[in-house]
Amino acid sequence: MTKPAVMLPTLTLLLFAAVGSAVASSISRCPGIMPPEMAGPTIEGIQRQLLQLGYRPGSNDGRLGRQTRAAISAYQRNAGLAEDGCPSLDLLNQMSFAAPPQAMHKNAVTASPVQEAQRLLTDKGVYSGPVDGKLGPMTKDAIKKFQQARDLPVTSQADFPTLTALRDTRR
Questions:
Q1: Which CATH number is correct for 12-27+37-95, 1.10.101, 1.10.10, 1.10.3470, 3.10.100?
Q2: Count of Cβ atoms closer than 10 Å to residue 12 Cβ
Q3: DSSP 3-state assignment of 20?
Q4: pLDDT on residue 38
Q5: N or C terminus: fewer CB in 10 A for the chain?
Protein backbone atom coordinates (compact mmCIF):
# COMPACT_ATOMS: atom_id res chain seq x y z
CA MET A 1 0.00 0.00 0.00
CA THR A 2 1.39 3.41 -0.90
CA LYS A 3 1.49 6.31 1.53
CA PRO A 4 -1.24 8.42 -0.19
CA ALA A 5 -3.70 5.50 0.04
CA VAL A 6 -3.07 5.24 3.79
CA MET A 7 -3.37 9.00 4.29
CA LEU A 8 -6.78 9.36 2.59
CA PRO A 9 -8.76 7.35 5.18
CA THR A 10 -6.84 9.08 7.97
CA LEU A 11 -7.59 12.54 6.55
CA THR A 12 -11.24 11.59 6.09
CA LEU A 13 -11.50 10.48 9.71
CA LEU A 14 -9.82 13.69 10.89
CA LEU A 15 -12.23 15.77 8.80
CA PHE A 16 -15.29 13.97 10.22
CA ALA A 17 -13.89 14.36 13.74
CA ALA A 18 -13.35 18.11 13.21
CA VAL A 19 -16.87 18.62 11.83
CA GLY A 20 -18.39 16.56 14.65
CA SER A 21 -16.37 18.54 17.19
CA ALA A 22 -17.56 21.87 15.72
CA VAL A 23 -21.19 20.75 15.89
CA ALA A 24 -20.74 19.42 19.43
CA SER A 25 -19.12 22.66 20.63
CA SER A 26 -21.82 24.79 18.99
CA ILE A 27 -24.56 22.76 20.69
CA SER A 28 -22.77 22.81 24.06
CA ARG A 29 -24.49 26.11 24.86
CA CYS A 30 -27.73 24.13 24.91
CA PRO A 31 -26.97 21.21 27.22
CA GLY A 32 -29.32 18.26 27.33
CA ILE A 33 -31.10 19.23 24.11
CA MET A 34 -30.06 16.24 21.98
CA PRO A 35 -27.20 13.84 21.40
CA PRO A 36 -24.37 15.53 19.44
CA GLU A 37 -24.73 13.05 16.55
CA MET A 38 -28.30 14.31 15.98
CA ALA A 39 -27.40 18.00 16.28
CA GLY A 40 -26.14 18.66 12.74
CA PRO A 41 -29.11 17.18 10.86
CA THR A 42 -31.60 18.73 13.32
CA ILE A 43 -30.00 22.16 13.01
CA GLU A 44 -30.02 21.84 9.20
CA GLY A 45 -33.75 21.06 9.31
CA ILE A 46 -34.39 24.03 11.59
CA GLN A 47 -32.34 26.30 9.32
CA ARG A 48 -34.37 25.18 6.27
CA GLN A 49 -37.67 25.70 8.10
CA LEU A 50 -36.60 29.12 9.47
CA LEU A 51 -35.72 30.22 5.94
CA GLN A 52 -39.12 29.06 4.64
CA LEU A 53 -40.82 31.00 7.45
CA GLY A 54 -39.03 34.22 6.54
CA TYR A 55 -36.25 34.20 9.16
CA ARG A 56 -32.57 34.55 8.27
CA PRO A 57 -30.58 31.70 9.86
CA GLY A 58 -27.52 32.14 7.64
CA SER A 59 -26.02 29.19 5.80
CA ASN A 60 -27.84 25.86 5.83
CA ASP A 61 -24.75 24.17 7.24
CA GLY A 62 -26.01 22.34 10.33
CA ARG A 63 -23.99 24.57 12.64
CA LEU A 64 -25.40 26.58 15.50
CA GLY A 65 -23.77 29.90 14.73
CA ARG A 66 -24.69 33.38 15.94
CA GLN A 67 -27.10 34.03 13.06
CA THR A 68 -28.90 30.69 13.48
CA ARG A 69 -29.28 31.22 17.25
CA ALA A 70 -30.66 34.73 16.63
CA ALA A 71 -33.18 33.38 14.10
CA ILE A 72 -34.24 30.60 16.50
CA SER A 73 -34.68 33.17 19.29
CA ALA A 74 -36.76 35.42 17.03
CA TYR A 75 -38.96 32.50 16.01
CA GLN A 76 -39.40 31.41 19.64
CA ARG A 77 -40.31 34.97 20.67
CA ASN A 78 -42.83 35.36 17.83
CA ALA A 79 -44.36 31.93 18.48
CA GLY A 80 -44.70 32.55 22.22
CA LEU A 81 -42.18 29.83 23.13
CA ALA A 82 -39.51 29.97 25.82
CA GLU A 83 -36.73 31.97 24.21
CA ASP A 84 -33.35 30.30 24.57
CA GLY A 85 -32.03 30.17 20.99
CA CYS A 86 -31.48 26.43 21.32
CA PRO A 87 -32.39 23.93 18.61
CA SER A 88 -34.43 20.86 19.42
CA LEU A 89 -36.54 18.24 17.70
CA ASP A 90 -39.61 19.69 19.46
CA LEU A 91 -38.84 23.12 18.00
CA LEU A 92 -38.43 21.65 14.51
CA ASN A 93 -41.71 19.75 14.85
CA GLN A 94 -43.55 22.83 16.09
CA MET A 95 -42.16 24.88 13.22
CA SER A 96 -43.38 22.26 10.76
CA PHE A 97 -46.86 22.01 12.34
CA ALA A 98 -46.12 18.37 13.17
CA ALA A 99 -46.69 18.97 16.88
CA PRO A 100 -49.23 21.26 18.49
CA PRO A 101 -47.74 24.52 19.77
CA GLN A 102 -47.23 25.02 23.49
CA ALA A 103 -50.03 27.59 23.86
CA MET A 104 -52.77 25.24 22.66
CA HIS A 105 -55.35 23.60 24.90
CA LYS A 106 -53.99 20.50 26.62
CA ASN A 107 -56.64 18.17 25.17
CA ALA A 108 -56.74 19.64 21.68
CA VAL A 109 -55.91 17.52 18.67
CA THR A 110 -55.19 19.56 15.58
CA ALA A 111 -55.12 17.91 12.18
CA SER A 112 -54.16 20.99 10.18
CA PRO A 113 -53.31 24.69 10.45
CA VAL A 114 -56.81 25.52 9.13
CA GLN A 115 -58.47 23.40 11.81
CA GLU A 116 -56.27 25.02 14.47
CA ALA A 117 -57.22 28.48 13.15
CA GLN A 118 -60.92 27.56 13.23
CA ARG A 119 -60.68 26.38 16.83
CA LEU A 120 -58.74 29.43 17.98
CA LEU A 121 -61.05 31.81 16.10
CA THR A 122 -64.00 30.07 17.77
CA ASP A 123 -62.33 30.53 21.18
CA LYS A 124 -61.91 34.23 20.42
CA GLY A 125 -65.56 34.57 19.32
CA VAL A 126 -64.71 35.43 15.71
CA TYR A 127 -65.87 32.19 14.07
CA SER A 128 -69.03 30.15 14.58
CA GLY A 129 -68.75 27.54 11.84
CA PRO A 130 -67.62 23.92 11.97
CA VAL A 131 -64.07 23.05 13.05
CA ASP A 132 -63.49 20.74 10.10
CA GLY A 133 -60.16 21.89 8.65
CA LYS A 134 -61.79 23.15 5.42
CA LEU A 135 -60.90 26.64 4.23
CA GLY A 136 -64.42 27.63 3.20
CA PRO A 137 -66.00 31.09 2.90
CA MET A 138 -66.89 31.34 6.63
CA THR A 139 -63.36 30.43 7.68
CA LYS A 140 -61.76 32.81 5.17
CA ASP A 141 -64.03 35.63 6.32
CA ALA A 142 -63.23 35.02 10.00
CA ILE A 143 -59.49 34.88 9.28
CA LYS A 144 -59.72 38.08 7.24
CA LYS A 145 -61.55 39.91 10.05
CA PHE A 146 -59.01 38.70 12.60
CA GLN A 147 -56.09 39.75 10.37
CA GLN A 148 -57.60 43.21 9.88
CA ALA A 149 -58.22 43.64 13.62
CA ARG A 150 -54.59 42.70 14.38
CA ASP A 151 -53.06 44.75 11.53
CA LEU A 152 -51.71 41.59 9.90
CA PRO A 153 -51.29 41.12 6.15
CA VAL A 154 -54.80 40.25 4.93
CA THR A 155 -54.47 36.90 3.16
CA SER A 156 -57.58 35.06 4.45
CA GLN A 157 -55.21 32.10 4.97
CA ALA A 158 -54.12 30.25 8.11
CA ASP A 159 -50.53 31.38 7.56
CA PHE A 160 -47.71 31.60 10.08
CA PRO A 161 -48.22 35.24 11.21
CA THR A 162 -51.95 34.62 11.66
CA LEU A 163 -51.50 31.39 13.61
CA THR A 164 -48.86 33.03 15.78
CA ALA A 165 -51.24 35.90 16.60
CA LEU A 166 -54.12 33.47 17.21
CA ARG A 167 -51.96 31.47 19.63
CA ASP A 168 -51.13 34.60 21.61
CA THR A 169 -53.04 34.08 24.85
CA ARG A 170 -52.45 37.67 25.99
CA ARG A 171 -55.11 39.08 23.63
A1: 1.10.101
A2: 10
A3: helix
A4: 79
A5: N
